[in-house]
Amino acid sequence: MEHWELVARESIRDLVARYNANGDSGRFGPMLELFAPDAVMEVPQQTCRGRESIRVFFEDVASGTGGGSGSRAAFIRHFTATHQIDIEGEDTAAGRCYYAVLTDRGLDHWGRYVDRYRRIEGRWLFEHRKVTLDGSVENGWAARD
Length: 145
Hints:
By secondary structure, the protein is α+β, with helices and mostly antiparallel strands. It is built from three helices and six strands.
């Protein structure tokens, strides 16, 4: 394995960690900088194209953080595991990992991220992120209307 590939893998791991940390704390500005300007993000029943569309999606999610019972989660924490990264070239890669989301009430929902990454001006960014939902708890944060 060449040095550039090791740097790419570690940069992509950091990208995914920063996505979770920034999103969980509501720092949407720094989180949006992790996406390519023309990035696509697919979530169940919605596709966002470009940073502005992704920003609107996250602001809408943040404004409705109440669970199915109408109460709000005190905090949200995303955890990722089994992150597989396929380096395709010096500027492109693909990846996938599992995620689980905890709130102050415990495990809320879980699924998988399927990503495409692109290096732009020396930084690895999300080019495409597909979020799948494998399951959720009844009346949890993800079960809201």
